[in-house]
Amino acid sequence: MFFIIIVAIVVLIVLYGMGVFSKPAPCQCCGTELKGTQQIKFGNIHSQFILCKDCENKIHPVIKDYANSNWSYSDFEDYLAWEEETKDERAQFSKTSSYGSYCSVDIDKKRGLFKINMPLIKEGMVFRFADLDDCDIDFRPEEADDGFLNSTVMGNEFIMVELTRPNVRIEEMLTLTACYSAKKKGVFSTKYEYNLSDELYGFIRTFTTCIYLEQEKQNQAYAEESYNIDEIEKALALFMFDSMEDVTEENLKRQRNALIKAFHPDNNESNERYSQKINEAYDLLKSVINK
Ligand SMILES: [Zn+2]
After folding, report:
1. Which of 70, 86, 105, 123 has the lowest tally of Cβ within 10 angstroms?
2. CATH annotation of 229-290
3. CA of 29 to the centre of ligand 1 (A)
């Protein structure tokens, strides 16, 4: 009898865990009504949300673990938006170099993309250097043998990448094939100097070059986009606006017409230059509000 009660309790706990007693609820993404057993509770423990299997499968397996313990629903939404926006760009990935074996990183230097491959995951995930927020490549040597001045040590390299979009942090061990030699810094020293392999150097060099190239690209885009503050001030003064907050497309157009009329080139030769200035200022302010 006692045994039967224990079994019954265990069965109830298992069924509860499977969600048999949970109320039906919709998938937050597609709205499909789900029975208790079909509900996947996803995301950060403080802001879990319910997904159906199909919607959960939209998350790439490379980032699923991180997403499952860190995301809120807005992170999930942002991921879907990012995925859509960058799909075509990332589909063009074609590797120019590859590092590591167990977990590996492929790089497409030309397009500014990198791909993280993980064991047991069929297809790696492609990210953009443009979305990289932080990155760290870390060499962790195994203990070198204290008894020798020179010894050969094996080590592991860890790569950590943090992205702004999608909200992801990945830390993986790269197994680059080379060994490393270590040299004691002095006979009585316990400190070693490590000679990193060409392969690791190659990886660090390529990765940092790509980050640098991406930064250059962004700086250039920023320089092209950014306006000369003085010019904006002058344009505002010309149009008699106090600040950009006063500028709307409508009142900008109205003010320009009034000024052009007042300083019409036909009335006065020196007005020609003035009306050109008005048009330049108009174009500038218009481009600022349309940005
Ligand atoms: Zn769904």
Report:
1. 123
2. 1.10.287
3. 5
Helix, strand, coil: what percent of the chain each, to 5? 45, 25, 30
Kindly give the distance from the C-alpha atom of residue 120 to the centroid of ligand 1, in angstroms, as a whole number: 25
Quickly count: other Cβ atoms within 10 Å of residue 225's Cβ.
Answer: 9
The whole-angstrom separation of Cα 155 and Cα 158 is 10
Cα–ligand 1 centroid distance for 34 (angstroms): 9
Question: Distance, CA 51 to ligand 1 centroid (Å)?
Answer: 5
Who contacts 5 (Cβ-Cβ below 8 Å, separation ≥6)?
A: none
Which of 166, 179, 159 lies closest to 103, judged by CA?
A: 159
Q: Rounded to whole angstroms, how far apart are CA atoms 122 and 22?
A: 34
Closest CA to 37 of 23, 58, 57, 55: 23
- Contacts of 46-53 with C-beta under 8 Å, sequence gap 24+, read 47/72, 47/73, 49/73, 49/76, 50/25, 50/26, 51/27, 51/76, 52/27
Question: What are the residue boundaries of the structural domains of the chain, listed by start?
Answer: 2-85, 90-225, 229-290
> Does the pLDDT value for residue 230 go beyond 90?
no
d(CA 171, CA 124): 14
CA–centroid distance, 44 to ligand 1, in Å, is 18
Site of tokens 């392969």: 199
Q: Is the pTM of this model over 0.70?
A: no
Most confident of 106-120, 153-167, 236-250: 106-120
Ligand 1 center–CA 53 separation, angstroms: 7
- Write the pLDDT tens digit of every residue in 34-67: 998 899 999 998 989 999 999 999 999 999 999 9
Sorted by sequence, the CB contacts under 8 Å of residue 48 that are 6+ apart come out as 41, 42
